Amino acid sequence: LTRYLNSNSNYSIIFRDHNWKNIEGQDLDTDRTDYNTGHNIRETKAIIAAFARHKLTADFPANLDTLQLPLDYSYMGKREITIKNGVISNGKVDIPINEIRRVVCASNGTISKLLVYKEEKPSSFFKKIFDKCDMKITLNAITLPLLEAIVTRNTGHGIDFSRGNGFDQKDSNYIIIRYLDSGFFLEKDGTAITEWQKTAAETTAKFNYDVKTLLV
Q1: ω before 70 within 30° of 0 (cis)?
Q2: Helix boundaries (H) for 74-131
Q3: pLDDT at 198 exceeding the cut of 80
Q4: Among 53, 110, 191, 200, who pairs with 185 as Cys (CB 3.0-4.6 Å)?
Q5: CA-based angle 142:175:69, to the nearest 5?
Q6: Where are the domains of the chain?
């Protein structure tokens, strides 16, 4: 998905196969016409939300500890990033999801990462000075709702979206608007049976950009 975090129209969705290769001739241009004065994302968000729901399955978020799914691919490291039976792995580092205590969203509008930490606060001077995380994961339609669910379940609060993009955004709340939907965190019947689900859903819903709202 290109241009989605640094413009307000004319995005491109690029489809990949199971080997993470781009599928030629299948690119899809979306939201080419502005339809309001806010976030022009109606078509794009509907598509990526449907994709995320399909990949995370209808059992999400109840299946957090059993989910088996490829999340991303590191072309430089030539390693696939996966979640399997409660462990996120990049082929080099494994992190049990119940050990994740903090996730920070870091984006400049072009490159967007989720910084994963096993500590609420740095335990060493080195980690504090260099802000060394335990794993970096590419922000995408699957990883964002997944990690929002994980860290909210573990700690009672979600991803840290306080960082701006160094240009026109003082924080990363625009990424919540463009990628998250409160329905991700609810049961099949639309209810929240745990406090953390309620927290995650309300955090997203307050921006009033859920897909059901956009498509009215």
Answers
A1: no
A2: 125-130
A3: yes
A4: 200
A5: 5
A6: 11-214
Structure-block tokens of residue 207:
């921006």
Q: Which of left, alpha, beta for 10 (phi over 0: left; psi -120 to 50: alpha)?
A: left
d(CA 118, CA 16): 31
pLDDT tens string 133-174: 999 999 999 999 999 999 999 999 999 999 988 888 899 999
- Looking up tokens 């802000």, which residue turns up? 131
Q: How confident is the model at residue 70 (pLDDT cuts 50, 70, 90)?
A: very high
Token pair belonging to 13: 């969705």
Q: For residue 147, what are its two tokens?
A: 């990690």
Q: Which residue has the tokens 């409160």?
A: 182
* The token pair that represents 109 in the structure block: 């509008």
User: The pTM is what?
Assistant: 0.93
3 state SS of 78: coil
